[in-house]
Amino acid sequence: MDEQLHERVRDVIASVPTGRVATYGDIAAIAGASTPRLVGRVLREDGHDLPWHRILRADGTPAPHLAHRQLELLRAEGVLADGQKVDLRAYRWRV
């Protein structure tokens, strides 16, 4: 991944507002990434200072190893989940 794409992905993630969520695919599409996996890679390698908790899987669920903490952070922002799933129709960020 080139540095420009890396920075575009970071910029898009950073722009997801409080109380909203986006999917890995949403971020990839906006940033011009070829696959949502690149978004996950950026978050894994360089996402400590980003609102990572606002990025979900396409079905509205968090990554299993982050689920408890991610849902806790989202709840603090007013994003409620039904079990382990966030209603994307209600909370999805629209650019």
Description of the molecule:
With 95 residues, the protein is mainly alpha-helical. The chain contains five helices and four strands. It has helices at 3-14, 24-31, 36-46, 67-76, 88-91; strands at residues 22-23, 55-56, 81-82, 85-86. A two-stranded parallel sheet has the order 1-2. Strands 3-4 form a two-stranded antiparallel sheet. A hairpin with a 2-residue loop joins strand 3 (81-82) and strand 4 (85-86). Helix 1 (3-14) crosses helix 2 and helix 2 (24-31) crosses helix 3. The longest helix has 12 residues, at 3-14. 27% of the residues are buried.
Core attributes:
globular, 4 strands, 95 residues, 5 helices, two-stranded parallel sheet, two-stranded antiparallel sheet, WH-like_DNA-bd_sf, mainly alpha
Short structural description:
It holds the Pfam family DNA_binding_1. With 95 residues, this protein is mainly alpha-helical.
Q: What's the total helix number?
A: 5
Note poorly predicted spans.
Answer: none
Helix content: 40-55%
| pLDDT averaged over residues | 96
Structural class: mainly alpha
The biggest sheet amounts to:
2 strands, parallel
**Overall body shape:** globular
- End-to-end Cα distance, whole Å, is 24 Å
What is the N-to-C order of secondary-structure elements (H for helix, E for strand)? HEHHEHEEH
- Please state roughly what percent of the residues sit in beta strands, choosing from under 5%, 5-15%, 15-25%, 25-35%, 35-45% or over 45%: 5-15%
Task: Return Rg in Å.
Answer: 12 Å
Give the spatial strand order of the biggest sheet.
1-2
